[in-house]
Specification:
The protein is α/β, with parallel strands linked by helices. It is built from ten helices and ten strands. Helix 3 runs parallel beside helix 5 and helix 5 runs parallel beside helix 6. The two termini are 31 Å apart.
């Protein structure tokens, strides 16, 4: 479902601030894979995510989604293949529009627009049923402005919007990092439910090693723009944070420096 082949990305080339963010990076995801991604600051996690989404062009290599080479496609043309939830709960929704209007926008993404009435009764019922999954009481607040919701409610809504059209690939970019622990756990529970229900191929960056171990069927760790660990199957099921730290040190020759990732 996703092939990243020998991708290189260098920021500020030829300057004192030159940074090799992705170093001949390759990754393949099978249909239905749920891969968690972890690594220290500057490891290349968000650079990889932005490369897939087409936020900027890569310097070398190819990116293929479901057999389609999207390497040269701009961000807005790749959007039809992707669902994305960002770290900031304020990103991904229209604050001044109602909950149902936001869901309608997501539902119509990629379709032609007509002059017919906005939201039908059938659609409204569909949105109400969808929102019940979240167990946040939003199904009774369809016309509430999204800007009035809490960060967790907004992030849960963004997740629904990103998966409404069953994307080829779901990108979760530290989507619980800005939430309190209880709310983060609820959003992760909802994520797991939707991903499993719809068998979505998913790439989830997390700052939390425990979450990376607990979710998905595969875990990769990045360091200096390369994958240094790729753990799956039974090995992943038996993994502990201590195991992961030892593996990182053995693979990279250094200690993992992020207390936030270990303790979070």
């Amino acid at each position: 479902m996703l092939e990243i082949k020998n991708v290189t990305k260098i920021f500020n080339p030829g300057t004192v601030n030159e940074k090799l963010a992705l170093d001949n990076f390759s990754l393949t995801l099978e249909d239905g894979d749920f891969v968690t991604v972890i690594g220290g600051n500057g490891a290349g996690k968000s650079t990889m995510m932005n490369a897939i989404a087409g936020v900027w062009p890569v310097d070398a290599g190819k990116i293929i989604i479901d057999g389609v080479d999207v390497t040269k496609l701009p961000e807005h043309k790749r959007a039809k293949y992707l669902g994305r939830v960002f770290q900031d709960p304020m990103t991904g929704t229209a604050a001044t529009m109602g909950i149902e209007e936001n869901l309608a926008l997501a539902k119509r993404r990629g379709h032609g627009r007509t002059l017919r009435a906005g939201i039908s009764r059938k659609e409204r019922e569909e949105y109400r049923e969808l929102l019940k999954i979240l167990d946040l009481g939003l199904e009774d607040r369809l016309t509430s402005k999204v800007g009035l919701l809490s960060g967790g409610q907004r992030q849960a809504l963004t997740l629904l919007m990103a998966t409404l059209q069953k994307p080829k690939l779901l990108l979760l970019d530290e989507h619980t990092a800005a939430l309190d622990p209880k709310t983060a756990a609820k959003v992760l529970e909802t994520t797991e439910f939707i991903v499993q229900r719809d068998q979505l191929t998913t790439l989830m960056i997390t700052h939390n090693m425990r979450d990376a171990i607990a979710h998905g069927n595969r875990l990769i760790m990045l360091n200096e723009g390369r994958i240094i660990l790729d753990i799956r199957g039974e090995e992943k099921k038996k993994l502990t944070v201590e195991d992961l730290l030892h593996k990182f040190e053995a693979a990279s020759g250094e200690e993992f420096a992020s207390d936030k990732a270990i303790l979070g």
